[in-house]
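TICKET: design request
STATUS: open
ATTACHED STRUCTURE:
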């Protein structure tokens, strides 16, 4: 019968991250969160429950002025989106996010999924062909009425 190893606590996981050259600092945006960064990428971790002691509060992204910028997929290109700006993502940034994500999962004991191991995945998808479809349809024009209504 296979034995399961006890999962490390939140504090033990943060110490493991520090020993693997991750920078671990308190995050002011997330209560109780810790900003973990390496390779120019970052994520915010918080304490989880008994089964999963570490929870990811903010998914990995590029670290921009102390903020974790999201990776946005528009179908034809990926973008780095922060609260202040949105720029096209470079290959170096995508490689940094991918390397950071894989190493972080390994250190915190999270599951590594096949599709995520193949390349960088986004947490937000906005395809230009679908933009505006969620809005209500405009009322049909009535050219026979006077006054444009």
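STATUS: resolved
RESOLUTION: sequence designed for all positions
ATTACHED SEQUENCE:
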């Amino acid at each position: 019968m296979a034995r399961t190893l006890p999962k490390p606590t939140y504090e033990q996981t943060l110490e493991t991250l520090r020993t693997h050259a991750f920078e671990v600092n308190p995050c002011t945006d997330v209560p109780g969160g810790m900003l973990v960064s390496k390779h120019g990428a970052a994520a915010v971790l918080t304490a989880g429950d008994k089964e999963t002691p570490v929870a990811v509060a903010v998914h990995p992204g590029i670290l921009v002025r102390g903020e974790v910028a999201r990776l946005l997929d528009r179908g034809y290109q990926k973008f780095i989106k922060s609260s202040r700006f949105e720029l096209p993502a470079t290959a170096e940034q995508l490689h940094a996010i991918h390397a950071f994500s894989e190493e972080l999962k390994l250190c915190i004991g999270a599951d590594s999924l096949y599709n995520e191991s193949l390349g960088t995945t986004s947490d937000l998808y906005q395809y230009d062909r679908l933009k505006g479809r969620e809005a209500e349809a405009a009322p049909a024009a009535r050219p026979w009425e006077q006054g444009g209504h």
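CLOSING REMARK: The chain has a mean pLDDT of 80. The first helix runs from residue 10 to 19.
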